[in-house]
Amino acid sequence: MATHPTGVSLHPTIEAVTRRIAQRSAPTRSAYLAQIQAARERKPGADRMGCANVAHAFAAMPSSDKARATGIDKFKVVAQRGPNIGIVNAYNDLLSAHAPLQRYPDLIKTEARRLGATAQVAGGVPAMCDGVTQGTAGMELSLFSRDAIAMATAVSLSHDVFDCALMLGVCDKIVPGLLIGALHFGHLPTVFVPAGPMTSGLSNNEKAKVRERAAQGLVGRPELLEAESAAYHGQGTCTFYGTANSNQMLLEAMGLHVPGTAFINPGNAVRDELTLEAVRTVLGRQTGTAADSTTWPVPPIGVLVDERCIVNAMVALLATGGSTNHLIHWVAVARSAGIVIDWNDFSALSDVVPLLTRVYPNGSADVNQFQAAGGPGFVIRELLDAGFMHADVLTVRAGGLREFGTMPAASSAGQLEWHDIGDSGDESVVRPASRPFNASGGLKLLQGNLGRSVIKVSAVPEDRHVIEAPCRVFNSQDALHQAFSANTLNHDVVCVVRWQGPQANGMPELHKLTPPLAVLQGKGFRVALVTDGRMSGASGKVPAAIHVSPEAAAGGPLAKVRDGDVIRLDANTQTLQVLVGPAEWEARPLATMPAELRIANGIGMGRELFAGMRRNALTAEEGACTWL
Prior knowledge:
This protein is of the alpha/beta class. The chain has helices at residues 12-40, 45-48, 51-58, 63-70, 104-114, 130-133, 142-157, 174-183, 204-215, 221-231, 243-253, 269-282, 301-304, 307-319, 326-336, 343-350, 367-373, 375-385, 477-485, 502-505, 514-522, 582-587, 595-601, 611-616, and strands at 72-73, 76-77, 84-89, 118-124, 164-168, 190-193, 406-410, 416-420, 443-448, 451-456, 466-474, 493-497, 527-531, 544-549, 566-570, 575-578. An eight-stranded mixed β-sheet has the order 9-10-14-13-12-11-15-16. It has a four-stranded parallel β-sheet with strand order 4-3-5-6, with helices on both faces. A two-stranded antiparallel ribbon has the order 1-2. Helix 5 crosses helix 12, helix 7 runs parallel beside helix 8 (174-183) and helix 8 (174-183) runs parallel beside helix 15 (326-336). It is globular, with a radius of gyration of 24 Å.
């Protein structure tokens, strides 16, 4: 059994899963590391490239920066060439979470100059908001936007004149896309730079209640818009613990941030200083460590992100009841580093990792309350102390992962310092590992004659962990909404929504189904959702077997299901079964995707441009990757 540097023994399941991943990944990881090493052994771009290439790369720079970047000024070698930072920015002012990033490049360039370095915006990447596109045709571009972002990151860094990189982004597909892209340039030291959550507005519970009342026709559009606008009211990420904020938790657990950066609000005085610290960190000149930071280079991101780092991210996800989307995204992230993980790994970890947080939709608190109670730092410290995380990993900081178990603040002189978090500030929000909310994580793998799927149970009432009822089969989420509006679902029912996988229509989130299903459950009916699509990172109290693989469009068993079939979803035994005799089930023909759906899914709102991605997409369990 492995022992942490502090003497804490690593939990045997964590050790076993990590070993299994390392053995499975040995060929691909070895090839990946060899590729990184070859890239690292080259001369820097400004020294290696032809003069015309270099002139093009730095033509727009101020002359002082140009001399620093090339080491040459007016035909003379003037000094040792300074490092050049590539900035990849997801800024736009449509997304509240990314609007603050407009200011960051200027902050970064100024700090880089102070430290004898230069910085360039290597490129921008697209960033779309699922909250805007939810339930619309645009949502069918959402999942594949991750791979588009990864490709845009690669295009940005392909100029190959950078010594290190900063990734500016926050939300759902943006961080996984940036991370996938960065790992394909794994030879570069890389630090991620977020912007933080918006301040708290209308509580998530109150917002959910208004949505349910609107679904019942009890309030109109003006009241609903007023509530939504009170919840989403300013710059920063949404305050529920969905995919965007789960991203930030995982990056902290992977050691890819400046410690404690995740949930500091955009207007907080510490926020800009943390952004400057990201510059210092990526240049190896960090603040707040006993190490001689000028002699400690940040490891290349491809070396840093190893199987232990990936397992730490998976553990952090499970311990906080994070977004189900990461059972897709982090499979793709791992594969980008030559590491192969699957849902069996998540399931084995979930069996032993304790649930330490209750943040909406798994509780009533928002991420600001989570931060005030101790935040990611408290969770990481507790998991390390209890042997649920690998402490012996590389991070972007010389202090290692232990430094991510602290909280940043500004000293009286305005400088950054990190302090011990102490006890939980609110045990209704975050608890120590010795007194968890649950002894196991919030995600489970379901298997049976309907395929493999996942369910997030951390917010589902215990009396709803088993649902057995006749099913209604829908070919779209609109069809389910129509049935709800027509009052034809007022009974125990398992709603099957198929043709929602990566190959069918790009695997949109089906979060718009949450209010009507929650209304039905609130009436006392036993209700569940079974789908080859995704739910939002905010999927909540209605049991939902999602990401069913193989998907219906790829010949998966959901294509055999008929109205009236009894389906049993059992999160306790981790099974998903249609209760049809084996002989009858085997003999049933597979339905085909209705022609009108197939045509409609590929036309309009730019969906034609993503046809190749739909054709090439792997299964959800394989990360829905379009590039393998």
